[in-house]
Amino acid sequence: MAKIKEVSGSICAPAGFKAAGMHCGIKKEKKDLALIVSEAPASAAAVYTTNVVKAAPITVTMEHLADGKARGIIANSGNANACVVGGQEAAEKMCELAAAQLGLLAEDFAVASTGVIGQSLDIGPIASSIGELAGMLSHSAQSAAEAIMTTDTFDKQAACEIEIGAKTVRIGGIAKGSGMIHPNMATMLAFITTDANIGPELLSEILSQDAQDSFNMLSVDGDTSTNDMCAVLANGMAGNDPIQKGSAEEEAFRQGLGFVTKKLARLIAEDGEGATKLLTVKVTGAESKEQARAIAKSIVSSSLVKTAMFGNDANWGRILCAAGYAGVSFPVDRTKISISSEHGSVVVAQNGMQVLFDEAEALKALQAKEVIVDFSLGSGQESAEAWGCDLSYDYVKINGSYRT
Amino acid sequence: MAKIKEVSGSICAPAGFKAAGMHCGIKKEKKDLALIVSEAPASAAAVYTTNVVKAAPITVTMEHLADGKARGIIANSGNANACVVGGQEAAEKMCELAAAQLGLLAEDFAVASTGVIGQSLDIGPIASSIGELAGMLSHSAQSAAEAIMTTDTFDKQAACEIEIGAKTVRIGGIAKGSGMIHPNMATMLAFITTDANIGPELLSEILSQDAQDSFNMLSVDGDTSTNDMCAVLANGMAGNDPIQKGSAEEEAFRQGLGFVTKKLARLIAEDGEGATKLLTVKVTGAESKEQARAIAKSIVSSSLVKTAMFGNDANWGRILCAAGYAGVSFPVDRTKISISSEHGSVVVAQNGMQVLFDEAEALKALQAKEVIVDFSLGSGQESAEAWGCDLSYDYVKINGSYRT
Q1: Is A333 an 8 Å CB contact of chain B?
Q2: Predicted complex: ipTM over 0.95
Q3: Chain B within 8 Å of A127 (Cβ-Cβ)?
């Protein structure tokens, strides 16, 4: 394992990155426009929603990052710029406005939008505020982290420091989540910066693989949105020799990136719409990584498991049942399920059947801000972890009248 | 189209079937034991849960129906007889008890259980009541339909009459649903009877195909249980010549069966846990049946669509979005979405984008006991229909403390 040191500053922790966020007028009062810029040209890579219906900023960013290079990211919240006439033009215009302020090319900007689907994005407020926003660029990530939030109740930031070839490399990220978060990206935005020196191809490969174990293991409500994106910019300012594929340096970079993305994923799960607790599902003893991931995702996504968590009910039958419809087979008679938290740990089922357990102890374990379900398959050495949250009255309340 | 006439009497509408239901003591007060018997030997077929975790009654029924013959069905509610030591023995014992009362073979009984997972099924109350239950067998299906209910708020029955080779053939069914209902069978039980003369192989083939368009197009909460089963008995007492594969008679039988199973599926959706309305999704203009089914299921299963329905919100963006992650591709720019009910019909999106619509009219259409979402793909001639319900506060309430 590489030595990973957590640091503050998120996207502005790596050398050469500035950020800013402000209220431009898409939302009524809250911050709704964010800008992230690298002082030096950067390798760029991104992973996108798998939804057939892709918002305009997704297709524009795909084009802009096709050459593996970028200088910045412009993002708004309050409007998803999805499923509207003129969406493409608006997304391009956002890049042009940002680039013009900084003497850069529009093609070197990624663009992201999050918010309501199907309402035209008025470019006016963005055009009239972009000068002010560019003037606010600083080494603080706070306002940008806030400006990408929608129904999020807190901003999500993470950063770490690793050693690569005797150089100190930093990786930082901000994210927004809340509604519609599900494996394979949802209305989730994550922007990662690093001062590592790494080529775009390897960066893209590492990001895609990392997402399988971070953002794609995240589920709030099973819906996958039209606007999701995780983009990473690597500007090389740490001064390390270019990271080579298959090297120890690559492995260190993977671990650093994983530290940041997994932390952001957990923060998103914790802040799921209406969530009262973070649910972590750890599958161990699997025959393959795919089997472990499928079962972990299935359990963490089950509405019945989620409501049981909300009700502090150690309903292991629902957990086993959700594993059973994950689409992968496993020997039920070797399984073991335990529920744990900072308040204790209780084995609730073994060999596919109930074991006698103390209901009071189980209740105590369940009454915590983070509950961990350990699901052991007893078949192999592979494991996976997924994050979600409970399903509460407030989820229904928030989503019963979001648009109106 | 065959001429289908709806009749009353459900499973006792076809000639030669008797049924009974009673309270034996598995539940505190409500009916919990049901028996269905055919006077004559019957062809038998069933479809089962796809969950890797299968309850004991499922495996026992699979064995008993392997020869394509059966005489009856014994079922209990209140306990799922799943994931417990001795489950297999208890399920076998239920068949033996029923068979002994009627001078039949245990191997000629299907057995089903529904209720809590992971608690041992006490055979005592069943053993001491089976004599009384056998004595209650009559041509009324009512008590049996009630005895298989769990959190269902009403019993579910359907029957119809068709002409096959100048003979009147009847098909009837009862079902229970409520929680954990999802495509590919969930804690859903459906028992179908018919006096048609049809061999077990063709019966099995027709049932499997029918389930694709009836019970498997049903979603209440995305969970697929360990105990689901739809079993059909055909005793031939209508006196028709055996139905031949590929004949007009087969087609008439398919349509009659579909009438019964689709009606039961809709009743289950309407009675989803906490549901305030039935949601019907009709996908048309698809290139293939599979594409149509996948999109219909994805929309009807979306938590965000379901909460929007609960909130009477014409949130077409969520509908389009759910179609987009159905796992099949389609040209977004040819889609058209409308929302309708007995109170009117409103086109809410076209060509993948919002159309101007009257919010008051949309609200009016949404405020109904059944809301229909029409999703047109504009690409081909295939269609599919799926049924579900809205996601309400009560769903969370019911499922937050089911076990405790």
Answers
A1: no
A2: no
A3: no
